[in-house]
């Protein structure tokens, strides 16, 4: 019977370590955080198994100890093995930041740059393990711990086995670790060892970038797995239709049932997606070798020392945590304004200057979030240093034990999406007023070498005087390097507002914002996005590109100058898509609604 807190505690006085709390459990038993009795600053993780599993525990210890004697930063270190009358204890290095599974956002997926960072470390760790003649056989996010400095560490060698004997590779008998991550050959006769870990690493990567398991078992009886192996029309469906094509190809080459065709670890390391931005901060998606000097990435000083989380709090608990931490910032919390995949936005008021209100964007403290928040702040701060009426101003950033805070100008009239009249579109006159301001703001942003990459009505705030202000620079990046435009790769935004070229390996930056601005204008004029995603497999999008539905509502009731503008903005041909300057000079943009109301300019929906 696996140990429990109640059964394990009587043995504590016999151990060199004092039990603190349980941090995990599984079929093997339980894992506890323990501290050295002589020096409480020394922490270890203790894997506790029942005496009936002593042979398995001893085998795991011998394999793991051999790896630890050589040592590698991406493999958790085992310290010693202990036993009591009822249990066996494996004392391991303690990784204080939880496991990789905790880093995958709930009901969402991990950002590709972050997934790449962890995947590269996983491949490096597996190369070391295989180089010692060992195969892990149970690679999965729960068995990949995160230590300080965001270092990934492979753990749990309960299924590990030697696959080299006197330098010769031997075949292994089937042994399944975790079904969802097990390679298809695990269900057949004897097989090679290293390809098992390659497959499991591939499923781990897919779990990070997709956010869920795509099949329950790698077996032809599983319909989802059968569709993956057949490979027909995969890019027609989410999540693959919006996936970077280089990443998709990598997954196809790893997750193949043909072991001889499956990539090796060396081939994975040399893959273009894995090697992308080798010498750049991992969160940047620029195809360059160094940061633009315009946006340096200095370290920032926290208000108080941050502390590691073994389990990341859920988004639902952010409000409660923020209220608990309310006294740590110079602003007092008033009310929650909104939330998203990043965290939450709160209205706050200065403690020193009553009546001065700011909007605070809160994100949980973690090593993985640090670079993301810092990049957003540096880009947004540089824009604010120059200043523009149509870009929200950012004041400062602070770190507390629980959160990163971005303190910004408060736009008191909500978002553009909230300005849409219920059940009917916005009037062309009002849509033109807001669209002109959006184009002016984008011209300013692009002029400083920045592309936003997530323009949509929810990211456009309205201040007093009906002034539109672009906000949320979480996906923003620089697209100019030493005065030259550089190509970008897909990082993720909002699918309905994304340009069609994001599915290609590289693409230009400014046309992305032009497309998203065009979709935003379409939303204002038609009361909705007319396609789910910009792919020819989507019938509504294909009809728009081919122009087969222009005689139907709402297009047949739209001002011809306006329809012509939308057609020139929302074209899949990037070279023919209008620039911001060309949009400003277009006839509809120069139309004065105060003096000349064009016929059929008011759109109704059948």
TL;DR of this structure?
It comes from Caenorhabditis remanei (Caenorhabditis vulgaris). The protein has 606 residues and is of the alpha+beta class.
Structure description:
30% of the residues lie in helices and 18% in strands. The protein folds into four domains: 5-93, Phosphorylase Kinase, domain 1 (2-Layer Sandwich); 100-275, Transferase(Phosphotransferase), domain 1 (Orthogonal Bundle); 315-409, Phosphorylase Kinase, domain 1 (2-Layer Sandwich), CATH 3.30.200.20; 416-590, Transferase(Phosphotransferase), domain 1 (Orthogonal Bundle). The chain contains 17 helices and 22 strands. The radius of gyration is 28 Å and the shape is globular. The relative contact order is 0.07. It has helices spanning 5-8, 54-70, 100-103, 112-131, 194-210, 223-230, 245-254, 265-269, 272-275, 318-324, 367-386, 428-447, 510-526, 539-546, 560-569, 580-585, 587-590, and strands at residues 17-26, 29-36, 43-50, 78-83, 87-93, 134-135, 144-147, 151-154, 161-162, 164-165, 168-169, 331-340, 343-350, 357-364, 394-399, 403-409, 450-451, 460-463, 467-470, 477-478, 480-481, 484-485. The protein has 606 residues and is α+β, with helices and mostly antiparallel strands. The protein starts with a helix and ends in a 16-residue tail after the last helix. The strands form eight sheets. Strands 1-2-3-5-4 form a five-stranded antiparallel beta sheet, with helices on one face.
């Amino acid at each position: 019977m696996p140990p429990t807190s109640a059964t394990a505690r009587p043995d504590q006085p016999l151990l060199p370590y004092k039990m603190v709390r349980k941090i995990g459990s599984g079929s093997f038993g339980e894992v506890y955080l323990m501290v050295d009795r002589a020096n409480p600053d020394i922490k270890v993780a203790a894997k506790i198994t029942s005496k009936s599993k002593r042979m398995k525990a001893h085998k795991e210890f011998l394999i793991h100890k051999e790896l630890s004697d050589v040592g590698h930063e991406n493999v958790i270190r085992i310290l010693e093995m202990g036993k009591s009358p009822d249990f066996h204890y494996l004392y391991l290095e303690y990784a204080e930041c939880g496991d990789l599974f905790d880093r995958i956002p709930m009901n969402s997926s991990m950002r590709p740059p972050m997934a790449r960072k962890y995947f590269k470390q996983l491949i490096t760790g597996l190369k070391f393990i295989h180089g010692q003649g060992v195969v892990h056989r149970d690679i999965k996010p729960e068995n990949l711990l995160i230590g300080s400095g965001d270092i990934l560490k492979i753990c749990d060698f309960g299924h590990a086995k030697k696959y080299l004997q006197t330098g010769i590779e031997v075949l292994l008998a089937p042994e399944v670790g975790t079904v969802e991550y097990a390679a298809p050959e695990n269900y057949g006769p004897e097989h090679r060892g290293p390809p098992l870990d390659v497959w499991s690493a591939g499923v781990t990567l897919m779990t990070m970038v997709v956010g869920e398991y795509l099949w329950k078992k790698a077996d032809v009886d599983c319909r989802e797995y059968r569709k993956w192996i057949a490979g027909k029309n995969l890019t027609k469906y989410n999540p693959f239709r919006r996936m970077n094509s280089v990443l998709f190809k990598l997954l196809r080459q790893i997750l193949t049932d043909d072991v001889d065709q499956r990539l090796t670890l060396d081939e994975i390391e040399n893959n273009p997606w894995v090697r992308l931005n080798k010498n750049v901060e991992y969160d940047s998606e620029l195809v360059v070798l160094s940061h633009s000097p315009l946006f340096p990435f200095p370290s920032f000083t926290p208000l108080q020392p941050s502390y590691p989380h073994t389990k990341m709090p859920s988004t639902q608990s952010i409000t409660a945590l923020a209220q608990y931490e309310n006294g740590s910032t110079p602003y007092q919390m008033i009310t929650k304004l909104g939330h998203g995949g990043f965290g939450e936005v709160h209205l706050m008021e200065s403690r020193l200057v009553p009546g001065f209100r700011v909007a605070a964007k809160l994100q949980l403290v973690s090593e993985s979030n640090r670079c993301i928040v810092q990049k957003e702040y540096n880009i947004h701060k540089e824009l604010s240093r120059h200043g523009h009426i149509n870009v929200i101003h950012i004041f400062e950033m602070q770190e507390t034990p629980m959160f990163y805070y971005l303190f910004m100008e408060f736009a008191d009239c909500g978002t553009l999406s909230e300005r849409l009249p219920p059940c009917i579109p916005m009037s062309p006159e009002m849509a033109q007023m807001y669209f002109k301001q959006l184009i002016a703001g984008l011209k300013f942003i692009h002029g400083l070498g920045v592309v936003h990459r997530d323009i949509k009505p929810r990211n456009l705030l309205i201040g007093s005087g009906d002034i539109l202000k672009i906000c949320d620079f979480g996906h923003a990046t620089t697209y100019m390097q030493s005065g030259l435009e550089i190509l970008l790769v897909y990082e993720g935004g909002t699918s309905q507002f994304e340009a069609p070229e994001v599915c290609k390996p590289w693409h230009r930056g400014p046309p992305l914002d032009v497309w998203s601005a065009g979709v935003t204008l379409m939303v204002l004029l038609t009361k909705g996005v007319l396609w789910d995603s910009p792919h020819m497999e989507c019938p509504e999008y294909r009809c728009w590109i081919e122009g087969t539905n222009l005689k139907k509502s709402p297009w047949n009731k739209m001002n011809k100058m306006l329809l012509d503008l939308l057609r020139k903005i929302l074209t899949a041909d990037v070279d023919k898509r209008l620039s911001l300057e060309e949009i400003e000079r277009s006839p509809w943009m120069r139309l004065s609604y105060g003096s000349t109301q064009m016929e059929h300019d008011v759109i109704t929906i059948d």
